[in-house]
Amino acid sequence: MGVRLIQIAAVYFIIGVGLGMFMSMSHDFALSSVHAHVNLLGWASLGLAGVVYHLFPQAGGSTAGKIHFWLHNLGLPVMMIGLILLNSGVEGMEPVIAIGGTAVTIGIISFVYNVFAHVKSS
Ligand code: HEM
Ligand code: HEM
């Protein structure tokens, strides 16, 4: 689970940095909040969680870890695609972004619970 998350995070990293390069070169900053959250919720947060799950396998293998994995990985693309469409002028995207963001947030609550339940010095 830890290794898988680090690999997924690396994919977000290349997308996030690619979007940053695109914005810089085109001088079009409409997708700056997508860039910020792909990098921070995708690369930084998922990557850090992957390292935690790799260092503490009891956290990586727990039910709370699996809940976090799925809610974060399913919610984030929904939130990001909704945000891209909203910033591109598509109306009515707020509920889509809210559903994705809420899924990610519940996943992160599960991650935090998991840290206190299963990350312990041996
Ligand atoms: C080659 C890599 C990158 C490039 C070219 C780049 C480029 C940009 C650009 C053009 C903006 C918009 C600035 C504006 O709206 O005035 C931006 C915003 C931002 N970037 Fe990057 N970025 C890169 C990597 C990263 C990484 C790795 C992270 C985080 C881990 C990051 C986090 C952010 C954040 C949080 C904002 C929003 C700042 C704000 O709205 O105040 N960026 N970036
Ligand atoms: C599900 C979780 C999250 C939701 C729903 C969320 C939502 C938002 C919203 C609505 C904004 C304002 C965007 C705008 O004014 O265009 C924002 C800005 C920002 N958020 Fe988040 N956020 C989340 C998680 C995070 C995390 C985990 C980080 C950092 C690790 C972060 C870093 C930022 C930064 C740096 C900005 C300012 C950049 C910008 O305005 O684009 N967010 N967030």
TrEMBL record:
The entry's keywords: Membrane, Transmembrane, Transmembrane helix
- Give yes or no: UniProt keyword Transcription: no
Look up the signal peptide feature and give its range: none
Entries under InterPro entries matching the protein: Cyt_c_oxase-like_su1_sf
Bilayer-spanning residue ranges:
5-24, 36-56, 68-90, 96-116
Where do the coiled-coil regions begin and end? Answer: none
Q: What is this protein called?
A: Cbb3-type cytochrome c oxidase subunit I
- Origin species: Paenibacillus lemnae
